[in-house]
Amino acid sequence: MSDQPELSDLERTVFSPLQKTSLGFWMVLAALGALVLWGALAYAIQLRDGLGVTGLDRPVYWGIYLTNFVFFTGISMAGTLISAILRVTQAGWRRSITRIAEAITAFALMLGALQILIDMGRVDRLLNVLVFGRFQSPMLWDFTCIGAYFLSSVFYLYLPLIPDMARLRDKWTGAPRWRRWLYRVLALGWRGTAEQFRRLEKLIAIMAIVLIPTAALVHTVVSWLFGMTLEPMWHSTIFGPYFIVGAIFSGIALLFIFMTLLRRAWHLENYIGDKQYNYLGLLLLAMSAFWIYFTLAENLTTFYGAVADEMNVDAAKLLGSFSPLFWGMIVLNAVVPFAILVWRRGRTPLGTFVVSVSVVIGMWLERFLIVIPSLTRPRLAFDVGIYQPTMTEVAITVGSFALLALLYLAFFKIFPIMAMWEVEEAVGSGQRIVISDREPALQPSVH
Amino acid sequence: MSLGYWLINTAGIGGLVVVVVFLVLVVVYARLLRWILDGGKVEEPTDARQ
Amino acid sequence: MPRWGMVIDLDKCSACQACTVACRMENNTPVAGPAQAAQGRAILWNEVIPSVEGEYPNVKMRFIPRPCMQCDDPPCVKVCPVQATYKNEDGIVLIDYDRCIGCRFCTVACPYTVRYFNWFEPQWSPELRAHLNPDPEVAPRPKGIVEKCTFCIQRLHKAKQAAQDAGRVFQASDYVPACVETCTERARYFGDLDDPTSLVAQLAKSPRAVRLLEELGTQPKVFYLREG
Lengths: 447, 50, 228
What we know:
The structure holds 3 protein chains of 3 kinds.
Chain A: H1 9-19, H2 23-49, H3 64-88, H4 98-119, H5 128-131, H6 138-158, H7 161-171, H8 177-187, H9 194-227, H10 239-265, H11 274-305, H12 308-318, H13 323-341, H14 349-376, H15 391-414, H16 420-428
Helix pairs in contact in A: 2-15, 3-4, 3-9, 3-10, 3-14, 4-6, 4-15, 6-9, 7-8, 9-10, 10-11, 10-14, 11-12, 11-13, 12-14, 13-14
Chain B: H1 3-9, H2 13-38
Chain C: E1 4-9, H1 18-27, H2 34-38, E2 47-55, E3 58-66, H3 75-79, E4 85-87, E5 93-95, H4 105-109, E6 116-117, H5 126-129, E7 146-147, H6 153-165, H7 178-182, E8 188-192, H8 199-204, E9 209-210, E10 222-225
Parallel strand pairs in C: 1-10
Antiparallel strand pairs in C: 1-8, 2-3, 4-5, 6-7, 9-10
């Protein structure tokens, strides 16, 4: 620490988690690693024996792997979209949390794609999708959109990183060799001239606008994987927008969880404060309202019309064997957010954390209730399908969530948690971003 | 058989779309990066920041 | 080109399930065993499904023999990402076992749930293994891919070959799937739906003829003659 050039308060905050890693953090990583290993082992057994080790059967051909796929791609929406919307609307308080959000997108998309590979009976033939891919299949739409979205959001994550990489290259002279090499390569010879910054900011602004429709498209085609079939309650026009709303909803919730954990572990209390929790809390509440609206629209239309095939499925959800999950989901996604977030005192780190955990669980259940009940009651239902996930599926699911957290934490041990130049810019222009919990936030100045 | 159906039904064309979209984006993004960095070559009196 | 179709007379069917057995022996579908079968893992390209309608005392039991519907507008073919499942020039929906990636999009898209997945590597007891059909076209499928009724396409290929070898023109009556040939009550009819003089075409126009989930517009080529 002694041979450092002088660092600002912000730089010290950002650099220190990169420089020092506590024993506790290593233990968290080890625990996550063990869970990932458990999942990997379960997958190895599944590869060896076949998908029969899952609880899948005929007609429930898709289970919690597809649930996870929808869930992970859903939370991927949060990062880029929130960051992009807040950027487009020039919300100054976004500056300290955009990277935290954007990183979720990249890793959640990886995990989402991984679920499809895990679900495939012959993953060794994956390349057939490129060699023999036919575009009439919604699966090709998914490959196209998710591929484009992944690439674009990684690019969008990388752009604001460039000046930070240059700063780490220049100011952290005592860094280990591999870090010095990494930062030097990723800085791309950045000099930080005014023209470079002007172009960078312009491109970031354009990418933000491009990404919003791209993200919407991704969640729409994910829903169309289901919506294009004739399965009762899947074959519905509401699916596209319903998936988007659910995606933003669950995404903000996961953002809150990661943001709150990192805020504590990385000591960011001076940069992520009241304002972020208050505003994002309101956004989460608004998304809960949207989600309630869509859920009502879907179920009321189906229930009122009571077409036999669809009613079979809906009755199982609302009144039948899936009803504990359904009403549990309503409590987690609607009751809990409203009970806590409508109060100003609820939109605190603790309050939003509780709501977010509730929403993440609730939205996973929502995805489960989209995928499974329709399959148990197909149109030509001579019998009701059964689905009981096995330990293999549980292990792979837990391992996947652990892998997401592991990748995410490791990422922020290598890359700075905040775009330092953006945060400084806000301070420089009078947009106060440095907010402590005790002191009320200042009004942003006019631009 | 119409051209439209041929396009969506022929094996390989879908895969080609995925690959082309991906490659086009890689090229576009690489060029945009180049463009940003070339901002450093523009004549300027002083470095504004850092 | 003939449009192969099947008519099943429910008045004649005695639910003996000989069709199911014949199909299994002809097409080498693996044996799942009771536990797996109870879990919905049995692979039965042709299945005789008991269907109970109403409640006691107004109850009626029906049996519905169910092969693949061989839709003219098959929802499974639409969704396959790699064209592993396709409709051939005879209008029969087939699967390329070497290309299928096992994503099970087709199994989910089929409203009749007639498509089956190989959950494990196929197994037979030694006695059954000795009686596997040696035809390479129906060689056992590996685990992780989808399979289903093909109207015994291998029999069509053999019939065409036989006609060619004998130096005569192939006729629709040369080709018959195993379930039709075996049917103890002669409840199944098979042939060219486009030939107005054929028995299947005439039966398919009968006022008793119905198709399953006709309202979906999938145009199945399997017709049922309602119980009179």
